[in-house]
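Deliverable D5.2: sample structural annotation.
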Amino acid sequence: MNRVVVTGIGAITPVGNDIKTTWDNFLKGKSGIDTIRAFDTSNHTVKIAGEVKDFEPEQKFDPKIIKRLDRCVHLCLWATSEAVEDAQIDFDQYDKTQIGVILGSGIGGLHTWEREHTKFVEKGPARVSPFLIPMMIPDMTSGYIAIHWGLKGPNYTIISACASAAHAIGDAFRAIKYGDDNVVVTGGSEAPVTPFALAGFSNMRALSRRNNEPQKASRPFDVDRDGFIMAEGAATLILENLEFAKKRGAKIYAEIVGFGATGDGYHITAPAPEGEGARRSMERAIKEAGCRKDEINYVNTHGTSTELNDKFEAVAIKKLFGDNTKKPVLNATKSMIGHTLGAAGAIEAVVVLLSMRDGIVHTSLNLENPLPECNGLDFVAGGPRKVIIDCAISNSLGFGGHNATLCFKRFPD
């Protein structure tokens, strides 16, 4: 089996349009959640979201191409460009049939679908764009990334709601581990902040309605939470076979050593009672990693700020680590940027890698009154904390009962 390492990362989030800005703002505890600016919310109950700011993809890419791609792909292309540059890899120097693209997106081209459907209703079928289908389908996230760099290895997009990006990274990890590829471009992207999607999530009462305090609205594991906050963003990781990376002199952030995936088989939106599926997902990742539970220093939680997810994820983590005297620290990245749905697992994987690199864990914003279920858990709150991280896990839990956990280990070991 091959060992798999991360050699490049890129991100665009509600708190920054690159890795450095995003990470700096996470460590400052800065929230990227605010009143929605992209469209009029006067008829909406919910008026807040985590939007990417000052984003002009035409700055980097051909405007003609940008017009034929959905915002979801714009975000992914932006993050991937940074990751490729960070990895300092020239794909043209290597066998592109051994370089894959496996990405995640929960919804895909929602902006395009909504815009073109409005045209269809108001102006008739003749006015619908001939690019509707290729712009709308979620697999164009991976499809266009491969086209842009001419990559010819396995190419697909995973759709598993909020677990999409974590599943994509897990599949990429396995593709290299089992010898199918030398390099895989992986991660996730989502651009769901539209009037139609906002109404749908709001009407199912999944979203926070704390419109007057947007920066306090996302409060994972806090007793006063009242729902998640929709957000957009993307993150990309470059994964490589360790020996391949060594030969080309690549820098290495960390090693991916485990991937766990389970299903709840329970409900379309609610997690299984006691977080049973989430616990098994974590157990699988740790088992594949060959780590003991007491070696896990850090857990980046799924932490959505919803009633049942936070409660049962906390229960699952407590049951997993039991009475271990050495317990991991925990935090919730969504407290600052909201929920980027299919991109969340990738953004949070990047957070784990940066935390491991710098020996620091960002705060869980707005965690003022922790749930009773959090008793005995060591959440980072009130500011960042210095932590030496040898092994870490990151959870992603999606509607439909999809659970995914990634396990990272410090390199060199």
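Annotation notes: The mean pLDDT is 97. The first strand starts at residue 4 and ends at 12.
The annotation will be released with the project's public dataset once the embargo ends.
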